[in-house]
Amino acid sequence: MSTPQPPADALPAPRQPRIRPELRGWDGPWKGLRAVVTGLGVSGFAAADTLAELGARVVVVDGTDAQEKRREAETLRVVGVAEVLLGQQHLSQLPLIDGELPEILVTSPGWRPDSALIAQARAAQIPVLSEVELAWRLGARPGATEPKWLVLTGTNGKTTTATLLEAMLRKDGQRAIACGNIGVPVLDAIRDPQGYDALAVELSSFQLEYTELLSPVASAVLNIAEDHVDWHGSFAEYCAAKAKIFENTELACVYNADQPLTAEMVAEADVQEGCRAIGFTTGSPGLSMLGVVEDLLVDRAFLDNRAHQALELAGLEDFGPLAPKHLVANTLAAAALARAAGVAPEAIRAAVRDYEAGDHRIQPVAKADDVLWINDSKATNPHAAAASLRSFTDVIWIAGGLPKGVVYDELIQEIAPRLRHVILIGTDSSQLRSSLERHAPGVPVIGGRLREDESRTELDATLAGADGARAMRTAVAEAAKAAAAHHTVLMAPAAASMDQFASYAARGEAFIEAVAELMTD
Fold first, then answer.
1. Residues 343, 372: one domain?
2. Are 60 and 84 in contact (CB under 8 A)?
3. Is 160 annotated as a binding residue?
4. How many structural domains compose the chain?
């Protein structure tokens, strides 16, 4: 059965933003507004384009002066953007617009709060907004369908959950799109002439940092682990940014019942009257929760007799031959958001059956001599790597890269019994090596030694070199030497990629190519 929805006029009116509350709707006082947009990525471009369409006086600032950026700048000038400033020389001083300070600043998510332009704007009490909040303030175009906002965040699994949620909504017959941090700017979604019934909005902590207030139908925090501490300044600040997603939610705040911190976030959130806390767990669910019972994904939250019954949503066999625990958890979170939006159980099962995992996330790439080779380059932090490592025993682990200020001790303590050999890439994976030496002293480790270490070999230097492709070929070759029957070679770095690769995808492709070369030798 679908969840009954109250009539629109029965829902409480969402709270208004405290900062420039008059800047709402397509007919708001945007014309002539002096606006700076920082960053010319996909969200920055969408923000500048939208503000220009609204009649604002827009100046865009980006630190990169590349040919691609120049082409984008020319396009923005054509649509009415007043000025585009490219290059590092423009990052130290907030630009004036017609000789005056800007009235708002819309920032791309990569800009840190302590960057000069953001800090100067806040010191001058100029509102700093995300592209996401700008989209929420505008709403759908006049005449288009006003969508339900279903929003989610978490340290890991956001994109998987957003794409699953989108699929569930579409299988239910709703016009829906996954947007936000997933690659499609929310502004592009709300500017669609027809409009959408629902938006599956993936939000990063960076986007939430600059978002004052949303009013989603349902919201979710998938999980929380130490990540981006260098950007936010502390784990507490990182958690505070994530927790903002629950504020002002209308119907359902979805939390991870296996992580008490997410439940605490819900308890502390200022939500709309009548909003419910809905848990999800990979174990047996309690009342007002979704979970797993005897290989079935079930709902004990969105049905009338939830005290005594559970509604079947899907089975573990619907995932195919592999149903990793983290994927089941993400599916349950997506299902909770979907059920809050009225999606029928059969649509959820259909979405699960059709789901195909994206590249670089626990991606099998080869099997030979009874050794399985897995690419999980998207595991860019310890929490994501742990999800992979829990899925296998007898692991030859390729790991390492930029640690982003995280600590590895907890990860190594948990997964040490699964490790048979470790190969460390990355220009400085010494912290990971130290954790392995403390908490997995019997596991052989190659790589991760500092340049100053007298025992550092030529092999160590290659694994830590700036040539990422060469480092990966070397790591794969060493893994092949260590692997035996029934082992899994898992490349799940638990770190970012930018020290040796252009992106986590480039790192994953390097692993795939190296394994392919190994198989043809």
1. no
2. yes
3. yes
4. 3
